[in-house]
UniProtKB/TrEMBL annotation, chain A:
Organism: Cyprinus carpio
Protein name (Swiss-Prot/TrEMBL): Coiled-coil-helix-coiled-coil-helix domain-containing protein 1
Keyword Disulfide bond: yes
Record's keyword terms, sorted: Disulfide bond
Limits of the CHCH domain: 47-81
SUPFAM superfamilies (UniProt xref): Cysteine alpha-hairpin motif (SSF47072)
Gene Ontology annotations for the cellular component aspect, listed alphabetically: mitochondrial ribosome; nucleoplasm
UniProtKB/TrEMBL annotation, chain B:
Superkingdom as given in the UniProt entry: Eukaryota
Protein name: Mitochondrial ribosomal protein S7
Biological-process GO terms, alphabetical: translation
Organism from which the protein derives: Cyprinus carpio (Common carp)
Keyword presence, Ribosomal protein: yes
Record keywords, A-Z: Ribonucleoprotein, Ribosomal protein
GO CC aspect terms: ribonucleoprotein complex; ribosome
Domain Small ribosomal subunit protein uS7: 67-201
Family under the similarity heading: Belongs to the universal ribosomal protein uS7 family.
Amino acid sequence: MSGSVVQEKVAKLLSRQNGKPVLRPIKPLALKNEVASRSLKKGEATCVTEMSLVMACWKLNDFNNSVCSKEVSAFYTCVEKAQNKAKGKQGTQGRLLPKEANTLLKRFPNLSSEI
Amino acid sequence: MAASVRHLLKPWTPSLCLVRWSRYNSYYLDPDPSKDARVPDSELSPEQKELQELKTVRRIKAALSSDTSSPFSDPLMSKFINMMMQDGSKILARGIMTQPREEIECSPHSVFQQALENCKPIIGLASVQKGGKSYQVPVPLTDNRRGFLAMKWMITECRDNKHRRTHMYEKLSQELLAAFANEGNVVKRKHDLHRMAEANRAYAHYRWW
């Protein structure tokens, strides 16, 4: 229903009847069968505090890992938690991820020309 | 709309039957050649029971010719042998690996594992581009990456920095013993990496993951 309205508007923009046309497209006005893969929220560096603790311990004890084992194990637990969080966050509900949208569009594309 | 459309992205199920491949879909499960795999049902937790049922139903990958059911097989050792192998001569690589076992008297298996543990770096460096300039940023490493780096350093050190006339197994045994005692060139290389990471700790916030 709204598709025909859009087509009429586009036809009006391209027509030369009312003076110069508003649009002079080089490529055909059709959507690509792909979505831009962005929507990256600006992430932060994870586990920086633990890393700084480990480095401080290293400086005091001349990079001896056996002495700094507590800080190192804390660092490892932090890294594991961050990795699990990053894995779990990927499937955001309510919105298709750009990867999923691209696979679906590849299977069911919008045909712009006759095959 | 997304929820109804997402069901089209169901996980892959097989239509054709592959006989033997080197790259499998994630539908295929890994083979488990160990003899202790068959534990009676009473001792299994519900998750493990599910796993056993899955193994009876799902397709399983073809086992490699290096998979054994013997208790002496060590996945770490196999990985190290594969990394040391050149031009596919597994027999030669295995021979080189078994000889330091004769040289190292007490418990060569645990010595090998402890030596590699001592060589594993904790923090690595990653190159991050910011403002047209690339910085070396300290970064936490995954376990796989750490093990790989330890083994790679060991092998390159044995190949390059030793006297030309010594055999590989001699060089390996010397380096493994030194790493076990937290000395030697490989541990020094690990410490150098840690020192560089410590020097660049100001750039740690350039990471976004």
